[in-house]
Amino acid sequence: MHQSILYTPSEDKIVQCQICQRRCKIAPGKTGFCRTRKNVNGQLYSLIYGKVSSKRVSPIEIKPLFHFFPGSKWLSLGSLGCNFRCPGCQNWEISHADVEKGLPFIEYVSPEKVVQLALQENCKGISWTYNEPTIWLEYTLDTAKIAKERGLLTNYVTNGYITPEALNLLGPYLDAYRVDLKGFSNHTYKKIAQVSDFKGILENIKSAKSNWDMHVELITNLTPGYNDNEDELHKMAHWIAHEMGPDTPWHVTRFVPHLKLSDLDYTPIPKLEQARQIGIDEGLRYVYLGNVPGHAAENTYCPRCGRLLIERRNYHILRYNLEGNECVFCNATIAGYFE
Question: Hey, how many other C-beta atoms are within 10 angstroms of the C-beta on 225?
Answer without folding.
Answer: 11
